[in-house]
Amino acid sequence: MLSEQIVSVLRSVITDKNDVVPLHEPIFQGNELAYVKECLDTTFVSSVGKFVDRFEKDLVEFTGAGYAVAVTNGTAALQIALKLAGVQAQDEVLVPSLTFIATANAVSYLGAFPHLIDSEENTLGISATSLKEHLNFIGEIRSGQCFNKKTGNRISAIVPMHTFGHPVDIDGLFAVAKDYHLVVVEDAAESLGSYYHGKHTGTFGLLGTLSFNGNKTITTGGGGAILTNDRNLATLAKHITTTAKLPHAWEYTHDMIGYNFRLPNINAALGCAQLEMLPQFLTAKRALYESYKNAFSVVKNAKLQSEPKGCKSNYWLQTLILDSSVMNERDSILKTTNDCGLMTRPAWTLLHKLKPYQSCFRAELPVAESLEKRLINIPSSANIIDG
User: Fold this and answer.
1) N6-(pyridoxal phosphate)lysine is carried by which residues (predicted)?
2) 293 belongs to the catalytic site
């Protein structure tokens, strides 16, 4: 059976002999304890402290972005990024149907509507070809803005998501975005350490966002960041995510409606230590990919997802894609692997199948519909093989 063959292949690669091998767990082998202890010793555990500034500076240095603003989670980062990009209530924002619900939630928090787009198998992200065909059919340009001819709503932005760490087709999507006057805000929640033609994901659009949830390549426990090359946007992002409080020695004065989204110093301390370890994590995850690639070469009806040509993936979650001929065996594979202590999971349920987003305007989604039934994430932690 295919499920038993996959278990055998996984066991041949994974040297972790624990009863349960998680899908992706954090690793704390550096200065995490020392930096967190410093926060406790100095009592700077909240939104003020040296580690917040240091973490932002380190993110800028690593990603090459002009500015980074650390916030409480990736969803908050995307919500604020979309707000700063000019998304307004009643706008439509183009997002992939094949994504985690947070991508759509960030749009909805602004009173805007997710407009669902198909994916491509090569990158697992939004298909530029399908997007162009769709907009050619339903979009029209009026006064330099794109509108949906079917709903009458403005389509103001597009959110490419770098699925499981694999960079999307940036050139193709940006060409379409330019033709239709769309602002690009990248959801790079899963792709810290991934590069498109030598440039870090999340730094192409007007703004980009990262996530440092506990299951990401590095973690701050919970956290996220906004990336941008626009100084004014970075200043505004920091201001409104800190309740829009005006600087003063003792007075509490606020000049706009803000958000309490700033990342606490104690979480940033954890992030600083994790960033120090990031190159090591990325090396280990690439080695895991190579081991899986060799091992799965004997499996005829499943392939391991590889980084797109010209790109460098962080391989956040290693992913199997089943042949269409065996996609009905997906659930059996998931049950067998998890019963054996090897944690695997399917792709997310497509957004248009979720209750909050069933009525969203959407393109035809044949590739996303197929991938949903064929994707399986397999154990991907950076410490499950020797070396």
Assistant:
1) 216
2) no
